[in-house]
Structures are given as structure tokens and as C-alpha cells.
Amino acid sequence: MAMNCKTRARAAVLLTVSGLCVSARADQVEVLHWWTSGGESKAVSVLKQNVEKQGVTWKDFAVAGGSGTNALTVLKTNVVAGHPPSAAQLKGPSIHDWAEQGALVSIDAAAQGWDKLIPTQVGKYLKYDGHYVAAPVEIHRMNWLYINKEALDKVGGSAPNNWPEFFALADKMKAAGYVAVAHGGQPWQDVNLWEGVVLSQGADFYRKALVDLDQKTLTSDKMIQVFDTVRKIGTYFDNGTTGRDWNLATMMVINGKAGMQFMADWAKGEFARAGKVPGKDYVCVPRPGTTGSYMFNSDSIAFFAQNGQTSATPGQLVLAKAVMSPEFQEQFSLYKGSIPARIGIPMDKFDDCAKRSYADEQSAIKSNTIVPSLAQGMAQSEAVAGAITDVVTKFMHSTQDSKTAVQALAAAAKVK
Ligand code: BGC
Question: CA neighbours within 13 Å on the CB side: how many for 72?
């Protein structure tokens, strides 16, 4: 069997598992990801082209579904079945979970000098047991509000700084015939909307509630107010939210059907792809009450060990280096709406929203008002994040009262 494999797979690392010949090909990388919207596809093609130029074949394993809802299930199934991809889009604490199970391979050979090039809030997830197992792709700011500029001008409004201003603007938009808030009623989008309202109570409040899971904070009056505010925001949705993808909601703002969307800056990739310019066609502002705070999400490419492989293949190392290259870091984020994860990439080619994201991130680091996104798996384990997601989604898709939701939230935080 092994002999046959050898002749078949040139330049490949050969392994025999349960009598089957499986190859972790040194000159090929299979990359699982969920970058499938217009802006996202354009961004990931930069990486594909980069590795292919270096003689490594890119086998695309794209699984549609915002926030990786489907992709992460497919990843689990494939790993359990003994067919992990060479690399996958992952983030936050889940990288450590995979590494703990022995699923990841060290890419130290490609990571020389990285310690000085990666901000700590991102870097802490990329190493396991002192070894790099993942490469950082970008940093996304989660707490953005997007506003259609024509709609804003038409109602004579200005970008809201706080909730009373937001609701006054939403009322005007509604009266002028717009869907005031474009929303996709998928669990992760519900939680992203909700966590932005949590952040409007302050970065300390957010941290105590969603990072420390402090029971007093979770059951406080302020948390009840959070749910009340979310309930009120829901009255500005249209009837078509159920299951709507985030990029379709963004399209409603792009084409002027809707006035506003609460979304992270991957929405900006869609505006850019549609030829829309910030300041002229749309406005990006931190969500009401969150101006000084920065809620972040950061994608990484994590490297999987295929069938007993103990060190990274040449293809995996090429991919790891490509992810960290200044060219990729800049071009990917220009298409994607994010800012580079790598320190020291010049921001001059970026638009005003990205420049603001970068400046706000830097000042939030100094003022300790930078927080990880719960909705994006940056703050908690999958179990806790999943339990909180269930509570928020149930609340948003029912008539449950805020006090009951807060009790359920406190219980969800105790899930192990
Ligand atoms: C990822 C982003 C992606 C978004 C929408 C998030 O989980 O981190 O890169 O654009 O999902 O699919």
C-alpha cells in the first residue's frame, strides 16, 4: 500500500492509517474557512494567490454561513472522521481547545520574530505550550453602526452618540419609509447586537459581565436595562429578519432600503465591493454609548496535524509565512474592512473607517477599554458562549420580559 502511495504522491508526506493511504501533501494546503460573501471572497483570494505563486496548491474548503456557524461543525466532523484540513479559520480560546486535543501542529519554523509583531490581545491565543500553532489574519472592530448617508441626510439627522439620539433617528427613518434597522435574525447576529448594548454600559461592565461572568453584574439593574434596550431596538426591524444573512442586511443599507445596521467591519468589505465610500455614501460610527471602547474579533489560520503528522509540512509553513507577510496583511484588510493584525503596517491606503478603527484601538489599549467579542468566540469557551447565545436569541425571538432573561443569563454563565 505504502509503495503505491509513494509513486502516486510526489513531494508528499506519506502516512498509513487503518490500512488506508492518506497523504498530507507538502505542496498542497487545504484551507477550511467561511469567507464566502463578496468582500470576504475577494479578501481570501489574496492568500490563495500568494501561496500559489510560491508553488503550493490551494485546495479551497469554503463553508458558507456567517460567523462560522456551519464551518466549525464541518471542521469537527472532519477531524473526528480522521480527515482534518491542513489549515482552518479559527479564533480565540477555541485554538487552545484544539491544541489541547493534540489536533494542531507547531509552525514555529515559520514564526521567527513574531512575538514582536503581534499585539498581546491577539497573540495570547496563537501559541500553545510555548509554540505557535496559528497565524493572525486581521483585527475586526465589532461595535460599529453603519448608516446610509442619503437616508441620514434626508431625515436631517446626525450620527447618534447615545441611545436617546439613536431612537430619535430611528423614528425619523421609520417615518420616512425606511426599514430603520436592517437585522439578520441568526443567533450570532442577535448576540452581536446584544453585546454592543452591554458595551454601552461601559467597558468595565462588559468585562465583569461577559469576561469574568460576575453574577452580581449579570443580574444587575443595568443588565435589565440592556435587555430593555434590545427589546426596543427590535421594534425597528422589518418582518424579514428570520434567518437573514448578515451581508443581505448590509445590502439593504447599501441600496437604501434600510437606514442602519449594527455589524462588525466585515460589512465594510461589502460597501467597498459595491463601490461605496465612507463619508459620502455611508457613515460608520461606534455604536451608541461605545465611543471610547473597542470590541474586537481576530481571525487566525490554525494548522492541523493530518494523521499523525508531528511537524508542519512545507506547504503549511509557506501558508503561515504568507499570512504574516506585510503585503497580505495590508491587502486582505483593504478588501475585508478590517485592520491588519501585524504591528507596523502603514494605514495610509486605508479608508477613514479603518483609520478610525486603528486609532480607536490604540487608545482603547491605553485606556484599557478594549474587550473581546462574546459573539465571536473571543471571550468564553464554546459551552458558555453557546448557553448565553441561547438566552439572548430566545429573548429576541419571543416576548419574554427582561427580568426573566437576566435570570436565565446568570444561569447560562454557570455552564461548564
Ligand atoms: C469572522 C469574519 C467573517 C464573519 C462573517 C466572523 O466569525 O471572524 O472574518 O467575516 O464571521 O462571516
Answer: 12
Report CA(400)–ligand 1 centroid distance (Å): 29
In this structure, the residue with its CA closest to atom 7 of ligand 1 is 67
Nearest residue (by CA) to ligand 1, atom 6, is 67
Neighbours of 104 (CB within 10 A): 26
Nearest to 298 by CA among 157, 126, 177, 414: 126
39 Cβ closer than 6 Å to some ligand 1 atom: no
CA separation for the pair 265, 143 (Å, rounded):
8
Q: pLDDT tens-digit profile of 120-146?
A: 999 999 999 999 999 999 999 999 999
- CB of 192 sitting under 6 A from ligand 1: no
Q: By alpha-carbon position, which residue is closest to atom 12 of ligand 1?
A: 66
Cα 140 to averaged position of ligand 1 atoms, centre (Å): 9
Q: State whether the beta carbon of 67 lies less than 6 angstroms from ligand 1.
A: yes
Sheet holding 300-303, edge to edge: 57-62, 28-33, 87-90, 300-303, 134-136
How many whole angstroms from 154 Cα to the centroid of ligand 1?
A: 32
Predicted confidence (pLDDT) per residue in 187-212, tens digit: 999 999 999 999 999 999 999 999 99
CB 42 within 8 A of CB 335: yes
- The closest residue, in CA terms, to atom 8 on ligand 1 is 299
Q: Ligand 1, residues 125, 271, 297: which to mutate, most atoms within 8 A of Cβ?
A: 297
Q: Please state the atom number of ligand 1 nearest to the C-alpha of residue 336.
A: 10
Strands 87-90 and 28-33, by their bridges, are parallel
Q: Helix 326-336 to helix 314-324 angle, to the nearest 10 degrees?
A: 70
- In ligand 1, the atom with minimum distance to the C-alpha of 36 is 12
Query: Is pLDDT at 222 greater than 90 in this prediction?
Result: yes
Angle at 294 between CA 288 and CA 298, to 5 degrees: 130
Is the CB–ligand 1 distance for residue 34 below 6 Å? yes
